[in-house]
Design brief:
26% of the residues lie in helices and 46% in strands. With 146 residues, the protein is an alpha+beta fold. It has a single domain (2-144), classed as START domain (Alpha-D-Glucose-1,6-Bisphosphate, Chain A, domain 4), CATH 3.30.530. The chain has a 7-stranded antiparallel sheet with strand order 1-7-6-5-4-3-2, covered by helices on one side. The N and C termini lie far apart (36 Å). 20% of the residues are buried.
């Protein structure tokens, strides 16, 4: 499955890229009632790792992401190495446009079958992803537009 979302931020390219290259921003980019608990956050680089738990209310969802295609002020990809889905690859791209910086989010994902797939379909379906990425756009603008 594929999910795409884009938004524009009235901020510099450096500010947008720096914000997204800091895995700690994940806490700001996760809408209530999702809480993020960071376990391991390596500086953004090819092969760097972020390990965290997404708390959907009382339900913990462990995730390990590996970063690749890291290009300063252009974007990066995070790939689920361990987590709730069979596959998840999320590419963040940044480009200068009139009025600011366009953030393009491209996610390719696949659910497991059986009970595990039922859970991931409940948490990561198209409406849930649309809300998540809308919130991330709002939170990014709130953090960077002064």
């Amino acid at each position: 499955m594929i999910f795409d979302y884009a938004f524009t931020v009235r901020a510099s390219l450096a500010a947008v890229a720096d914000f997204h290259h800091d895995a700690r921003a994940l806490k700001l980019l996760s809408p209530p009632p999702i809480m993020v608990q960071l376990h391991l956050v390596e500086p953004m680089a090819n092969g760097s790792i972020a390990e965290f738990t997404l708390w959907f209310g009382p339900l913990p969802v462990r995730w390990r992401a590996v970063h690749s295609n890291v290009v300063a002020q252009r974007g990066f990809t995070d790939t689920q190495a361990r987590g709730p889905l069979r596959a998840w690859q999320h590419t963040h791209s940044f480009s200068v446009v009139a009025g600011g910086v366009r953030v393009q989010e491209h996610v390719e994902y696949e659910h497991d079958s059986g009970w595990r797939g039922m859970l991931s379909r409940l948490l990561f379906n198209a409406p849930a992803l649309a809300f998540l990425f809308w919130y991330r756009g709002w939170a990014t603008r709130r953090a960077l537009e002064k």
